[in-house]
Protein 1
Amino acid sequence: MTTATDIVYRLPQERKLVSELPGPRSMEIGQRRLGAVAAGVGSSVPVFAADADGGVIVDVDGNSLIDLGSGIAVTSVGASNSAVAAAVAEQAAHFTHTCFMVTPYEGYVAVAEKLNEITPGDFEKRTVLFNSGAEAVENAVKIARLSTRRNAVIAFDHAYHGRTNLTMAMTAKSMPYKRNFGPFAPEVYRMPMSYPYRDELGSDGVAAAKRAISMIEKQVGAETTAAIVIEPIQGEGGFIVPAPGFLSTLAEWCTMHRVLFIADEVQAGFARTGTWFACEQEGVTPDLITMAKGIAGGMPLSAVTGRADIMDTVHGGGLGGTYGGNPVACAAALAAIDQMESLDLCGRARHIETIITEALSATKDELDGAGLPVIGDIRGRGAMMAVELVTPAEDGTATREPNPDLTAAVAKAALAQGVVALTCGTYGNVLRLLPPLVIGDDLLRDGLAVLCQALKDNA
């Protein structure tokens, strides 16, 4: 088997700065942006990309940056993977669009077949393709409501499901995702999440699930609930890994009461956490699963896959969209999934987890030893890892007070040294690491060294 270590990269895999960041060309384009792009579109990094490959992004000024974000878990196979690029070019040379609802094509069918194969569950499945993660989640809810003939949908604290009206209602964090955009879709109810670092129930996932179930039964009612929608590992909320037993207990309750269990694997799916999908690590088989981000190597594509008897309850014409399952995106998805299989990127993700955990744990020990307990928690799975930063008490003892200022300062300092790192979390105090799964060990360790030094310098 070919492995990730056998990849031949098109660009040098190195961190190299030839200007301050942002450089003059990025600053020039940034000024143009102010007069052309709506102010509501933000960017975490003030540099403009010109090229990207493997684990690096080269900006318009020629700086080579280490990419620890993957376009928010999208470019898992690399931002210009040669197999994906070739598949895109080949398909585009034939046709870029016909609309599957008008003149269908084999690529859509092939992607559906592949997703039916690799998603959890040995039952018969069906798949429908869309464009974005939010679109997939919204359609999963549509399917659940129609098939169950119920209306209520359960979401969780710290959840992020998208920016459409329904998915904003399901998303927990107000700023910047929801503020002043309401009124939101009704019949969405929020329940407490298992957040081991901050939850009073700690690592007792079963107890946390029973707490949520009790609230559902009292405040909503099982008989009116169409679905529970949950990220097996929460993304924007802070890479929160629920305590063992939380997901499985919720899933058992769903089965008992004919409530659909929908796993939102938009960010955690496609080898990111060391298995094809994060819910597999909890032994949970969802009724429906939503996917996007890493599915197509950077091309816009999303999907809902689920039990055939549920998916096929929707009347003809009830699902679809003009661009859903675009043929170029389908070609990219087939190539990207093939790369994940042939390069064993699930195994690669687990290897990346070991490297990240070792680096962050050593830094935490060093800071704790120096009386600077700013690293509250290190968590995640595979190449979806996070460090939660907190503010020590005046006497130097540890607390769990969120430290968003330090988080922003560390990300800024890392960027100044050529490392792109993202932040997240309900409290804005989590550094999240989402490197491409094809990043080399040396480059990853260099990026982590820069990030850890930024933590030490700003603690």
Protein 2
Amino acid sequence: MEKVNHQKIILSTLLKVLLMIVIIFILNSWPNIKQSFSGNVPAFSYWLDHSFKISNIILILGFGGYFYYKDLSDQKELIEKSKNTNQH
């Protein structure tokens, strides 16, 4: 009997969430990034204040939960399909 690989699901979810954090940080900081190309670099704390707001944190947690649930349900579905295939 196959079991759900929770470690693989958690690792996959963490990688997706980290990628999402990087994308959100870049999108929210794009004016600062463009400004830094010309040599005028704002303080890092200014970048963090504009990137990690409560709404972004809620978005990250919500999508993290969705990614975990989706991977878990997909893996359970694959296990169920393999059981049905092996029984016939």
Protein 3
Amino acid sequence: MRSETPAAQANDSAPGDGLVKAGVILFAIGAVATLVTVAPLFLGTDPFPTVAYTVSMLMGVGFAVAAAGVLRSIAAQRRQAREGATAPVQAG
């Protein structure tokens, strides 16, 4: 008999995971935009238009979205722990 992982996998995503993933993506886009907008200062070229600086604000937005996801995950875990603590113990 072989020991294998079952074909049907359980849904392991917790509440807030989607927000954290979206926040990481937004943060990465904002970080790249920040590097791009700072580059002309070192290269001595003309600065980018205001839109480029606005896109760099996504770094802060991404951080806030990821933090909201973490807080949502914490709240769900606390709720789950509270429900488990109040559940009656069954005698076996």
Protein 4
Amino acid sequence: MIQSVHYENGSIGAVQFQNGQVVDVQTAIEMTEADLIEDANTGVNRKGEKTLRSYPDGDPSNNLSNLPRF
């Protein structure tokens, strides 16, 4: 489960899991697509780039943008 996020240039550059492991966003996207991260999914932004995002479950507290930053 993703515990916190690191922003670079206005977007998520890395994520940290509850076990302390930190991975860059590209690795997190690959892990999500391989069903290794259960609390996130991927999408495509306006530039056509893959992005990491949280599931729309109606709970804003677990949105990636609202998680603590490191």
